[in-house]
Amino acid sequence: MSGVQAGVFSRRRGRLLKTGQTTQYSGKLDDGYYKKGLAKAYTVLSAGQYSGTVNIDLVHLTATDIAFDAATKKITSAAGALAIFKTNDIIVITGSASNNGVYTVAIGNVAAEIVTLEALVNEDAGASVSIAKREAHSNNCVLDQNTGLMYSRYVANKMGAASDGKLPWYDATKLYDIFAYCAAANAASLGGYTDWRIPNDLELKCLCDMEAPNALPDAAAFPSWPTSDYIWSATTIPINVSYGMIVHFNNGNVYYTSKTTAYFTALLRGS
User: Fold this and answer.
1) Where in the chain is the domain with CATH 3.10.100?
2) Rounded Cα gap, residues 22 and 258, in angstroms
């Protein structure tokens, strides 16, 4: 991978945002000495429409080989495609003749079957059944006072093949990637809005606070953003459309990687 860092202009008088670096290193006239630009400023929105959680449902599998067994509470797949559903996942079944609903996975991570806590009705394979993962996502939002952009306060947390919130930029099944997740958040009216999008690389970069020991964004505004992993941007690198830009909030770097790699997803709205 190769990396590049970049700044972003504030819409306020065209001035750059501060990097957040306040320490002057080695007595040099560096960014920590001059501290030029607009100070980062955020408003956390957590009351009214921004309180509580909303259920985001993202389909991870659609197949015609899904069967249901009442005696064992098993959902089975002849093709063995169920390992992406993990123990304690909340799943949502649609397309079934008798088993549409919400279930808790009692035993997962097995290719051929899911065992549910809730009762099932006997049903043979044949119908086109979809299984979604459900994430209870906080409606809390963060308003960037300089740019006017609004961010979801938390990244995805239950989606992806490992149920850890990590999704690919592009998924060959066209079911669960970062853009499908964004669409699902809009369908759920996250925070009361339906115009969420994936941030570009500069929008993510401007959240970095470049003071040692890491580049994490404001802790009060973004309390759980990953400290040692990447967040996807919506930006494709110019020289190879198979690669997208990612931001690391430990070192503040912007990198690129294959769009099939799974990383965390942030959402924002505004322009």
Assistant:
1) 31-52+138-269
2) 34
The pairing of beta strand 141-144 with beta strand 101-107: unpaired
Q: Is 254 helix (H, G, I), strand (E, B) or coil?
A: strand
| 5-61 per-position pLDDT tens digit | 333 333 444 567 888 888 888 889 988 888 888 889 999 999 999 999 999 999 999
pLDDT digits (tens, 9 = 90+) for 146-168: 999 999 999 999 999 999 999 99
Greatest C-alpha distance within the chain: 74
* Residue 138: both structure tokens together: 């906080």
> Of 203, 154, 197, which is closest to residue 8 (Cα–Cα)?
203
Collapse the DSSP code of 233 into the 3-class scheme (helix H, G, I; strand E, B; otherwise coil) and give the result: strand
Residue that the structure tokens 């005696």 belong to: 71
Q: Identify whether 213 is preceded by a cis peptide bond (ω within 30 of 0).
A: yes
Rg (Cα) of the chain, in Å, rounded? 21
**What is the DSSP code string of 58-79?**
EEEEEES-EEEETTTTEEEETT
User: What is the assigned CATH class of domain 31-52+138-269?
Assistant: alpha beta
